[in-house]
């Protein structure tokens, strides 16, 4: 993808988000774009940064560390870890990311807390919720969400910001909205249960369901393909 193409696709992603917010009668800045740069080269991230994009999502720890090293000169860049997180990768994530969206069990949360360097300030955390039941292996079940939230809130190096989900694909808007609405209601319930917690984030909405997610209150939409083009899946 050339820089001109990137400039056009980023502009249309911004326009699409702006339109979705307007259709949902929501304020213009009430959801942000997270540019998912997994499998894409550091140069492409740099080009997006030059176009004003600041928040980037990565799924693979090693790949992300290499890119971060190449991009260490970029100021104001914010790195989000959004992929499955194994216990042996928590240290790298705690040391090199600003956000983690995919916390789904207590052991991982405790390790991230213990390994977060004091100098970096707290790691911003979303809990990944299994909104599609048996159709998904990832994410904490709704029934166990409150307990996990309580644990994360007790960990001083973590700051619990909200919830994340990757729903099973659905054809029409009404079906897309169902699991996203469940996530929104779960966040509302947590806010009532923990009124002091800074629970302001719903990380949901991808290239196929952005409009549905914005209607259900998404504050951080994660777009990969729509910004950077199709990924070469043969590499993974
Ligand atoms: C890859 C990925 C995305 C982006 O997906 P696209 O379909 O390319 O927009 C968003 N969220 C997560 C968790 C991902 O792994």
Rg measurement, Å: 17 Å
Percent of residues in beta strands? 15-25%
Give the helix level as a range of percent: 40-55%
Poorly predicted ranges: none
> How would you describe the shape?
globular
Number of helices: 9
- Estimate the mean pLDDT confidence: 96
Strands of the largest sheet, in order across it? 7-6-5-4-3-2-1-8
What structural class results from the helix and strand content? alpha/beta
In angstroms, what separates the terminal alpha carbons? Answer: 20 Å
CATH architecture: Alpha-Beta Barrel
Number of strands: 8
Ligand identities? pyridoxal-5'-phosphate
Task: Tell me the name of the CATH homologous superfamily.
Answer: Alanine racemase
Describe this structure in words.
- Helix 4 packs across helix 5.
- The longest helix has 21 residues, at 3-23.
- The chain is globular, with a radius of gyration of 17 Å.
- The protein has one domain (3-224): TIM Barrel (Alpha-Beta Barrel).
- An eight-stranded parallel beta sheet has the order 7-6-5-4-3-2-1-8.
- It starts with a helix and ends in an 8-residue tail after the last helix.
- It is built from nine helices and eight strands.
- The protein is α/β, with parallel strands linked by helices.
- Helices cover 42% and strands 16% of the residues.
- The relative contact order is 0.15.
């Amino acid at each position: 993808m050339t820089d001109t193409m990137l400039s056009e696709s980023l502009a249309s992603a911004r326009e699409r988000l702006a339109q979705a917010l307007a259709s949902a009668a929501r304020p213009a800045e009430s959801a942000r774009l997270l540019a998912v740069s997994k499998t894409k080269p550091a140069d492409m991230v740099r080009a997006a940064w030059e176009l004003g994009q600041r928040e980037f999502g990565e799924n693979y720890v090693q790949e992300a560390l290499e890119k971060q090293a190449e991009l260490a000169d970029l100021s104001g860049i914010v790195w989000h870890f959004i992929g499955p997180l194994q216990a042996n990768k928590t240290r790298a994530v705690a040391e090199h990311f600003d956000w983690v969206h995919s916390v789904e069990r207590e052991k991982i949360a405790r390790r991230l807390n213990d390994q977060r360097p004091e100098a970096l300030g707290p790691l911003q955390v979303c809990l990944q919720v299994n909104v599609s039941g048996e159709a998904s292996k990832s994410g904490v079940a709704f029934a166990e969400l409150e307990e996990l939230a309580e644990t994360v809130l007790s960990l001083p190096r973590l700051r619990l910001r909200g919830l994340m989900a990757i729903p099973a694909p659905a054809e029409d808007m009404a079906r897309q909205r169902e699991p996203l609405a469940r996530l929104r209601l779960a966040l509302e319930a947590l806010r009532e249960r923990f009124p002091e917690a800074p629970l302001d984030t719903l990380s949901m909405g991808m290239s196929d369901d952005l409009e549905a997610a914005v209607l259900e209150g998404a504050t951080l939409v994660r777009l990969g393909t729509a910004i950077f083009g199709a990924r070469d899946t043969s590499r993974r």
